[in-house]
Amino acid sequence: MSRRAAPRPIGEALGALNERLEPASTLGSVQRLWASVVGEAIARGARPVGERDGVLQIACDDAVWASELELMGPSLVSSLNAAIGRDVVRAVRVRADGAKGPRRDR
User: Fold this and answer.
1) What is the CATH number of the domain that holds 77?
2) Which residues of 71-97 are buried (b: 16+ CB within 10 A; e: fewer)?
3) Full domain range(s) for residue 64
4) Is 3 within a domain?
5) Could you give phi then psi for residue 36, rounded to 5 degrees?
6) What is the Cα–Cα distance from 33 to 89, expressed in whole angstroms?
7) Number of neighbouring beta carbons within 10 Å of residue 40
8) Does residue 102 belong to any structural domain of this protein?
9) How far apart are CA 73 and CA 17, in angstroms?
10) Is 35 part of a structural domain of the chain?
11) Residues 59, 46: contact at Cβ < 8 Å?
């Protein structure tokens, strides 16, 4: 009777499970890598919400973030494609969601 290999750390097992459960889509790949590619500060204020034909839609908490990410567009595309390992993102489209609360009149 042969002895089984030592148990794997739980982090390895869960990482492998997570990869199998992740949607096999460009958006799923971008969402998984988003914070590591753009950094925590940007990830807190902006998130990838859709993708169609290689155009990634990004929702931002405010217009300032949206403007910044529009300017960073080509750099974001390059960084995301490098992290994914293939050229699947060809452009970004950014929108500002803003606060969803009631408007204050002046």
Assistant:
1) 3.30.300.180
2) eeeeebbebbbebbeeebbeebebeee
3) 10-96
4) no
5) -70, -25
6) 13
7) 8
8) no
9) 32
10) yes
11) yes
What residue has token string 């889509």? 25
* 106 assigned to some structural domain: no
Q: State how many domains the chain has.
A: 1
CA–CA separation, 60 and 102 (whole Å): 18
Confirm if 51 and 30 have CB atoms less than 8 A apart: yes
Q: pTM (2 decimals)? A: 0.70
- How far apart are the C-alpha atoms of 104 and 98, rounded to whole Å? 13
- Residue-by-residue pLDDT tens, the chain, 106 positions: 566 677 777 777 666 666 666 556 899 999 999 999 999 999 999 999 999 999 999 999 999 989 999 999 999 999 999 999 999 999 999 999 865 434 444 3
